[in-house]
Design brief:
GO biological process, one term: signal transduction
CATH topology of the largest domain: 2-enoyl-CoA Hydratase, Chain A, domain 1
Structural class: alpha+beta
Shape: globular
Strand content: 25-35%
Radius of gyration: 27 Å
Distance between the termini: 104 Å
Keywords: Hydrolase, Membrane, Protease, Serine protease, Transmembrane, Transmembrane helix
Number of helices: 11
Number of strands: 21
Protein name: S41 family peptidase
Pfam families: CtpB_N-like (PF22694), PDZ_6 (PF17820), Peptidase_S41 (PF03572)
CATH class of the largest domain: Alpha Beta
Helix content: 25-40%
Family: Belongs to the peptidase S41A family.
Length: 398
């Protein structure tokens, strides 16, 4: 055998050895005669990790007393995986849940008009009832705790399931059991189509503008810009933005509104394990006195806007401490009608503060009169928070 043949054989041996190593250590599966399969080390490790899950599926499919829909087993296992994180904002949506969720962010759905969230104790807490909806008409208030829906117990650990239970065809009834001030009560509500008109505006005395934002859906920033430009064309000298009982919504909508109000600089930063982002305003900002009204029902995107205005000293906050939701969620669409909503980051105000579980303290703490109920229209006679905001701006424009 010549040296050339020996060299060629050695090269072939190296190539074969490298191929086998690649097969055993990377994501390549090789089907062998007889149906046997070679899988990578990573795939084998993953199979061992989830072996018990597959075994449970096999047992239930073969031996459970009734015939089983295996697709439901898959959905249930995914839901359980998401809920094991004990994060009420991370949840797997089946087709119905995802449809309901997308309908709400688009601005309309059939339900009772109650925005809810989960607190640290695992309760489902009413962030705010939406104006002129069955929830508000029934007297449901911010801070109420929902114990059950149609006598089915619910908690913050299955928040999206509880929301789905409250929704349903228009004209049908749903009964909520509520805890308020250590007393329980039942309220039966008739579902309606909830059309979310998220922006309302008018000019107050002395050319002080007033814009109320009820939530941040996909039309909010465009509607806000229209309202703001109208007030400017009417000679607005200062602006009050009412975020009370605004539960939040879409981050991009909030950022777009902040861009109309803030000078050039940071609006909010998000920090996650995989990716971090910083959102900034282009300027020049509003350039007029600005006050934001906030309370315990102001959450999420409302707090992003409030934190940016306060930290950047573009205006002041009046009212009571905000709700305290400093987490950001993303949606992974599986393109089969289902999706995973999961927490990807915490957000931080321009001063680097994460308000999760803490909320934002306003510059001026002002309580509403006892038993006073906020209305759709600005009230400069009894709404002490609005009166304070008006006086602050009025003193700056004189």
């Amino acid at each position: 055998m010549t040296r050339r043949k020996i060299y060629t054989g050695a090269v072939i041996l190296v190539i074969i050895t490298s191929l086998i190593t690649f097969i055993l250590t990377n994501s390549l599966s090789l089907i062998l005669p007889g149906g046997r399969v070679i899988v990578s080390r990573n795939e084998y490790s993953l199979m061992k990790q989830y072996q018990k899950l597959f075994e449970v599926r096999r047992i239930l499919k073969n031996a459970y007393v009734d015939k089983i829909d295996t697709s439901k087993l898959v959905d249930g296992s995914i839901k359980g995986m998401a809920s094991s994180l004990n994060d009420p904002y991370t949840v797997y949506f089946d087709k119905k849940d995802y449809s309901d969720f997308m309908t709400q962010t688009r601005g309309s759905y059939a339900g009772v008009g109650i925005i809810v969230s989960a607190d640290k104790k695992g309760h489902i807490v009413v962030v705010s009832p939406i104006k002129n909806t069955p929830g508000e008409k029934a007297g449901i208030k911010t801070g109420d705790i929902i114990i059950s829906v149609d006598d089915k117990k619910v908690s913050g650990n299955n928040l999206d399931e509880a929301v789905a239970l409250m929704k349903g065809p228009e004209g049908t009834n749903v009964t909520l059991t509520i805890l308020r001030d250590d007393k329980t009560m039942k309220k039966t509500l008739t579902r309606e189509t909830i059309v979310l008109q998220t922006v309302d505006s008018q000019m107050l005395a002395n050319n002080i503008g007033y814009i109320k934002i009820t939530m941040f859906d996909e039309h909010t920033s465009a509607d806000f810009k229209v309202a703001l430009n109208k007030l400017k064309s009417e000679g607005m000298k200062g602006l009050i933005i009412d975020l009370r009982d605004n539960p939040g919504g879409l981050l991009d909508e909030c950022v777009n509104i902040a861009n109309e109000l803030l000078p050039k600089g940071i609006i909010v930063s998000t920090k996650g394990r995989i990716e971090s982002k910083q959102y900034s305003s282009k300027g020049p900002g509003l350039g007029k006195p600005l006050v934001l009204l906030v309370n315990g029902g102001s959450a999420s995107a409302s707090e992003i806007l409030s934190g940016a205005v306060k930290d950047r000293k573009a205006g002041v906050l009046v009212g009571t401490k905000t709700f305290g939701k400093g987490l950001v969620q993303s949606i992974y669409d599986f393109n089969d009608g289902t999706a995973l909503k999961y927490t990807i980051a915490r957000y931080y105000t321009p001063n680097g503060v994460n308000i999760q579980g803490k909320g934002i303290e306003p510059n001026y703490i002002v309580e509403l009169p006892k038993n006073y109920v906020l209305t759709d229209k600005p009230d400069l006679k009894e709404d002490t928070q609005l009166i304070k905001a008006y006086d602050i701006i009025n003193s700056q424009i004189k």
